[in-house]
Amino acid sequence: MKTIDKYTLLNQIGQGQYGKVYKANKHNTQEYYAIKVIKLTRFKQLPKLTQFTMNEVETLKRINNPNVIKFIELFNSKNNLYLVYEFCNGGNLEEYIQRSRNLRESDAMDKFAQLLNGFESLQKENILHRDLKPSNILLHDNIVKIADFGFCKNIEPFDLTQTMVGSPIYMAPEILLGEPYSFSADIWSLGVCLYEMLFGRCPYEDVTIPRLMYQIQNQPVTMHTILADIPLPNRRGNRTTVEKDAHC
User: Fold this and answer.
1) For burial by CB atoms within 10 Å, which of 86, 96, 117, 124 has the most?
2) pLDDT of res. 30
């Protein structure tokens, strides 16, 4: 075990693109935290990493919602930057879906309601997440926590942005087409998450953006028979979040 500042790193619980995540506790307490460790050399190798990191830190400082991950503090040593967050004991939603194959309707709708609660707090602060997907949604005692805000962006309610960031199978059609987009893009991503919770797969899946866009434009959303007992209003509600507008 390694001691840094007032924390003891216990075990590695995650590996991201830029660093490792450890479960930690404060010295002589039973208070647990998640600490992301990024080598300072990574910031020299990836100039945008500083922007992504501070983007997340400054955004999370503004949000106080039980369905958004809580940021605690950051500090650095000679070799590393340490980002401290609340600890979540349930892994992420992607792992949860993989274990379950597909969720019971009541479970999926409960988690989706929590996601909407977290999303509402972001929208009130004019924050576009831009990378909503199950692997960026954490679980703690069955409470959903939206996390990973490196790609988020402040945007006024009627403004648009155009940068393509995120994971293609969760991206709204307007992003895939390189068109301007706003909060409706996050709503699309939430709809894809709900669909995946219910059916164990995304509504549209392909490894290339052109073929993915072809599916969205030409193939209606399929409501699989595996969950034919889902009430019709809920099936319709999910369909409306992941179907393209006529202009796309």
Assistant:
1) 96
2) 86
Q: What is the CATH number of domain 2-86?
A: 3.30.200.20
What is the mean predicted confidence (pLDDT) over 236-243? 52
Count of C-beta atoms within a 10 Å radius of residue 10: 15
Using CB atoms within 10 A of its CB, is residue 162 exposed (0-12), middle (13-18) or buried (19+)?
Answer: exposed
Write the burial class of residue 15 (CB in 10 Å: 0-12 exposed, 13-18 middle, 19+ buried): exposed
Which of 157-161, 202-206, 232-236 is the least confident region?
Answer: 232-236
| CATH number for the segment(s) 93-241 | 1.10.510.10
Q: Which of 110, 131, 141, 229 is catalytic?
A: 131
Q: Is 111 annotated as a binding residue?
A: no
Q: What is the mean pLDDT of the chain?
A: 87
Q: Which residues pair with 11 in a beta bridge?
A: 23
How far is CA 153 from its chain centroid?
14
Domain ranges of the chain: 2-86, 93-241
Q: Torsion angle, CA of 84/76/10/69, rounded to 10 degrees? A: 10
Place of tokens 């307490």: 29
Cβ density class 98-126: b for 16+ within 10 Å, e for less: eeeebbebeebbebbebbeebbebbbeee
Q: Does the annotation mark 229 as catalytic?
A: no
Residue 160: per-residue pLDDT: 62
d(CA 76, CA 98): 35
> Would you say the pTM of this structure is higher than 0.90?
no
Question: Looking at the predicted structure, is the pLDDT value of residue 98 above 70?
Answer: yes
* Residue 96 or residue 162, greater confidence: 96
